[in-house]
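Structure in, sequence out. Go:
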């Protein structure tokens, strides 16, 4: 039989010409698809036509010794950070494995000392309205857990109106799974109602019928990233002695206006001894703090009165507690290497976890905060926002900064070591300085953020314990999956 490779029997010279033409067409077709892949990679930025990029992190556990600061050494890894965004016409089984990085990290579960308070010995208390309680209680369940107590104090209801305390209590139980004490106050003025919270907490302790070693007063939008980190922090203090523990504002202007008071957004912690003294001194505190601005300022002055010391000396400062008076784009602060036990102003307020020029499904306050809390849930407070760096990828140069649970950024030029010790000035206002000596110096905002990916979701593996994929996205929908894979 004749050859079947050509449609008609042809002579050798014609066959040679035919094959050369076919080869040219094949090469032209291949060149077209390669050009198309290049265009898609550059223009569509990992849309439907491109696979997600991937990187694998294999954690190497190191002991926790102290809270991180911008001066904490950053692990530097030299391999390319992640795989390219391969075009989808390449079969998945032909793709090479993504880069794997062995990364020093802390235990995901914060190690709590034996002398730390148990969760059930901590009372989280807030005064808010019924509407805001329903909105923000979606966050509270992240830390009101493991037996921790909660108290919600509502404003007094107007004469003739129904008391909504029972409705709020039922809502918290049914929608949030929270068993909180809820009642309405007799104090109408919000700041004075905050001042009354130690007295309300003493009442709550009686109703609970159990010892409350620590009262935690926060705003309704205060966020605690890890209850175990809160307990470890409190282990430094003896609740049988008088302690007022809190954080200082980030803003030098706010600090200048209010001084070294406890700023309520980061959480105000009262030892049981101080809580009872402040409850007994409530009427005296009303008079003493009459002209003091803010409920947190009134609490600070009342604590000082109860402890018989000057109000400027009342506070024990914890730098992991953040009022977070950082206006607008707070990415530079979140990428600074500072530790976070608490945060504030993340919802419809001052600070953006993800810059607002990113798509709303990624950068909206609620979406960004829930993604950050999911990261905290898996990583633990000590690894959340931990920094890692890589050399620039694929000959692009520069530095890749990974911030666990938050972002991955490629800078076009090398970030010098001394720059990591300062906070990048990404926020809104000019001449905004950080409160000294509580916060580090700043550096100008970089203009060479070539690629930015921010946290979208955290997906736990159904098959492998200790494995999760952190999904990040860029402005164009490009996806980056960072796989945390524990060995053994």
């Amino acid at each position: 039989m004749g050859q079947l490779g050509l449609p008609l029997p042809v002579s050798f010279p014609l066959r040679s010409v035919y094959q050369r033409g076919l080869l040219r067409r094949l090469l032209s077709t291949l060149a077209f698809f390669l050009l198309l892949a290049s265009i898609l990679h550059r223009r569509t930025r990992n849309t439907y036509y491109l696979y997600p990029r991937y990187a694998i992190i294999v954690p190497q556990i190191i002991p926790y010794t102290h809270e991180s600061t911008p001066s904490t050494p950053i692990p530097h890894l030299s391999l390319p950070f992640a795989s390219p965004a391969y075009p989808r016409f390449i079969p998945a089984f032909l793709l090479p494995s993504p880069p794997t990085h062995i990364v020093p990290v802390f235990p995901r579960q914060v190690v709590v000392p034996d002398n730390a308070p148990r969760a059930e010995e901590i009372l989280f208390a807030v005064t808010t309205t019924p509407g805001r309680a329903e909105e923000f209680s979606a966050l509270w369940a992240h830390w009101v857990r493991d037996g921790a107590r909660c108290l919600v104090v509502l404003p007094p209801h107007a004469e003739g109106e129904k008391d909504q305390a029972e409705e709020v209590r039922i809502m918290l139980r049914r929608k949030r799974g929270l068993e909180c004490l809820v009642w309405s106050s007799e104090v109408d003025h919000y700041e004075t109602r905050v001042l009354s919270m130690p007295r309300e907490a003493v009442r709550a302790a009686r109703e609970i019928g159990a010892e409350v070693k620590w009262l935690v007063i926060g705003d309704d939008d205060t966020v605690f990233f890890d209850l175990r980190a809160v307990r470890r922090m409190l282990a430094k203090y003896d609740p049988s002695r008088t302690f007022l523990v809190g954080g200082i504002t980030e803003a030098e202007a706010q600090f200048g206006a209010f001084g070294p008071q406890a700023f309520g957004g980061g959480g105000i912690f009262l030892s049981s001894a101080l809580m009872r003294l402040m409850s007994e001194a409530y009427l005296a505190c009303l008079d003493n703090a009459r002209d003091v601005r803010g409920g947190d300022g009134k609490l600070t002055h009342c604590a000082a009165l109860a402890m018989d010391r000057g109000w400027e000396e009342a506070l024990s400062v914890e730098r992991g507690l953040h009022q977070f008076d950082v206006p607008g784009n707070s990415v530079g602060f979140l990428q600074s290497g500072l530790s976070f036990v608490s945060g504030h102003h993340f919802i419809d307020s001052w600070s953006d976890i993800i810059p607002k020029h990113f798509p709303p499904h990624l950068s909206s306050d609620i979406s960004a905060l829930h993604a950050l809390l999911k990261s905290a849930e898996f990583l633990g407070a000590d690894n959340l926002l931990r920094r890692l760096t890589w050399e620039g990828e694929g000959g692009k140069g520069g530095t890749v900064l990974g911030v666990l649970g938050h972002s991955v950024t490629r800078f076009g030029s090398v970030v010098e070591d001394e720059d990591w010790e300062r906070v990048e000035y990404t926020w809104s206002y000019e001449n905004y300085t950080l409160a000294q000596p509580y916060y580090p110096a700043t550096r100008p905002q970089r203009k060479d953020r070539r690629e930015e990916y921010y946290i979208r979701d955290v997906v736990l593996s159904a098959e492998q314990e200790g494995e999760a994929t952190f999904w990040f996205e860029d402005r164009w929908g490009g996806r980056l999956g960072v796989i945390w894979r524990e060995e053994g």
